[in-house]
Design a protein that fits this description.
The structure is a homotetramer of 167-residue chains. Chain A contains four helices and ten strands, in the order βββαβαβαβαββββ.
Chain lengths: 167, 167, 167, 167
Amino acid sequence: MATSIRIFVTGGTFDKEYDMIHGKLYFKDTHLPEIFKLGRCTLDITVRTLMMIDSLDMIEEDRELIRRHCMRCDENHIVITHGTDTMVQTAKLIAQAKLDKTVVLTGAMIPYKFGSSDGFFNLGNALAFVQALPKGVYIAMNGRYFRPDNVRKNKSTGFFEPLEDES
Amino acid sequence: MATSIRIFVTGGTFDKEYDMIHGKLYFKDTHLPEIFKLGRCTLDITVRTLMMIDSLDMIEEDRELIRRHCMRCDENHIVITHGTDTMVQTAKLIAQAKLDKTVVLTGAMIPYKFGSSDGFFNLGNALAFVQALPKGVYIAMNGRYFRPDNVRKNKSTGFFEPLEDES
Amino acid sequence: MATSIRIFVTGGTFDKEYDMIHGKLYFKDTHLPEIFKLGRCTLDITVRTLMMIDSLDMIEEDRELIRRHCMRCDENHIVITHGTDTMVQTAKLIAQAKLDKTVVLTGAMIPYKFGSSDGFFNLGNALAFVQALPKGVYIAMNGRYFRPDNVRKNKSTGFFEPLEDES
Amino acid sequence: MATSIRIFVTGGTFDKEYDMIHGKLYFKDTHLPEIFKLGRCTLDITVRTLMMIDSLDMIEEDRELIRRHCMRCDENHIVITHGTDTMVQTAKLIAQAKLDKTVVLTGAMIPYKFGSSDGFFNLGNALAFVQALPKGVYIAMNGRYFRPDNVRKNKSTGFFEPLEDES
C-alpha cells in the first residue's frame, strides 16, 4: 500500500492569491488538492490547514501548535507547507521533539496561482523526500533537502544554502 | 556539496510540443533546463539528450543505448525522462545491469508545454527520489516510486499501479 | 444595454484537448464559458455548439447548417469559432446570404488549453469587431479583420494575409 | 496595409510583476511585446512606455503628458494601457482635446503575469475597437466599450458599468 502522508498547511507565499479589488495578496484556501490532481498523485494523503499566515507573522505559539500536530497525528510521514522566511526556525523547533517520524517542510518563492511558481516542483520534491528519507526533520527547497541546523535562506537571492559545505 | 545528478532525456509525452502548422504533436528540444529554472533548482545537474522518441517506437537497441549510458556516466544518481508506455520495460533492462547507482525513470501523461502537465511535479518527485533512495532502479510516477518488477501502467486510467500490494 | 451577441461553436483547433490515454488531440466541450469568465466579460452572450469538428472535415452541408443558423438566430451580432483551414470558405458562403447582420469568424492556431494559445486574444478581437464593425461578414485573426473575398491563410506560416494590399 | 496603431503604456495592474525577494508587486517592463507575439498579431504597432505607475498615484501632470502624446503622435489609432482606478478620469481629459483620432484605454484587474489575467483578452478587445470604432475616446473593459462620460468602475465588483442604461 502507498505510504500514508499527512500534510499540514500553514500558509506562506505558496498559497497566496491576488485580490483584484484591493490589488493586494491575500490567503483564501489552500491549493494543495488541485495540485495533487494536476500531478495525478495517487498517494494516500490527508491535508489539514493549521493556519494561513505569512511566516514573518508567526509567533512562538503558532510554531508550538505545528509541533504538537506533528507529534499527535497518526502518520509517520509529514509534509508542512510554510512561508520561507522563518521555515528554518519552525523546522528547528520540530526537530527538538525528536519524533520517530520523517517531517519535510517546503514552500514557494512565487505563489502557486501565479503560473510561474516553483511551488508545484517543490511539493513534488517534498512528497518524494518524505517517503524516502530516514526519520528526521528536513527542509526541501531548490530541488535539495537540508537539515534544519545546516541551512539558511539567502535573503538577497531567495535560495536556501547550507551553512557549511557538507561534502 | 549538492549531489551530482545526470539526466538522460529520451523523449516521451513529457517533451512533446504542438506543431501549429500541421496540427500535430512533435519533438523539438527538451524543456528540462527551463523546468529547473522555474523550480529554482540549485542541484548540480548535467542533462544529455540520448534520443527524442515515443517510447512505443523504442527498439531494443535504444534501450540498450540507455543502459550503456547509465553504466558509463560518472554520476551515481541518474534520472531518465521516458515515455510512459514502455518505461517499465526499459527500467527492467537497466535493473539487469545491477549498477551501484540510483536510477529513477519518470515521464508525463500530458506534455510539459500544455500548461496542465503532471511533468513538473513528476520531475520534482524523481529528483528527490534519486537523491534519497538507496541504490537500485525505480519508476517515479503519480507521486510514488515503484520497483520495475512490481509495477504496470494501467492502460485505461494512465496510472501506474503495483502488481501486488506491497504492504 | 450591452449588445446581444450570439456565438456559434463549430470546433477547430481552438477547442481541442489532449487525450492523455491515447496521446491524441480530440474535442470534448467548448471552453468559451470559461474564457468569458477569465476575461471578466459582461456582454450578453448566448453560446450554441453546432458541431465539434476539424474544419478540414467540414462538408458543404456543415457550412450550410452554419449559414442557416446565422440567418435564423435573433441576434444581429454573431461570432463563429471555426477551424482556420477552411474558415475563409465558410465565411464566403455566409457572405452570399447578404444578411443584415455583423458576422465575425475567428479561431486559433494553438488549442486554448495549451497555455500559450492565441485563442483568448482572438476571441477578444472577434467580440470587439462584432460590436463595432458595420453589417457584413469578417474574419478576425492575427489582431486584424479581413473581408472573406480578400484573405487567405498562408499555409507555411499560419498567418492570415490580404490577397491584395488594401491600402 | 494594416492600420498603424500606437500604444502608450502607463502601468497599472496589467504590467505588475511579483517580486519574490520582498513578496510585493512591482513594475519592471511592459509585457506587451510578448502578448502580441502570443496573440500572433500582425498589426503595425508601435509601443512607447510613458510611465509605469499605479493609476491611483497619477497626478494631473501625468494625465496631461498622456494627452499631449496622444495629440502629437502620427498615428490616428491609439491604445493606452492604464490602471483601472482612474482610467475614466484620464479618458475624460483626453476627450476634452477633441482629437480627430480613435483612442481606446484598457487595463486589467489581474496582472498579465499571473496566469489567469483578463489582460490578454482586454488587449484583444482594445486593438479591435481601435480599428473599428469611429473617432473618439473609449474605455474597453469587460468585453465592452464605454464613452468616458457614461462609465464608472464599480469599486466593489471591479466591473465597469454604464452610468445610465444606453438602450
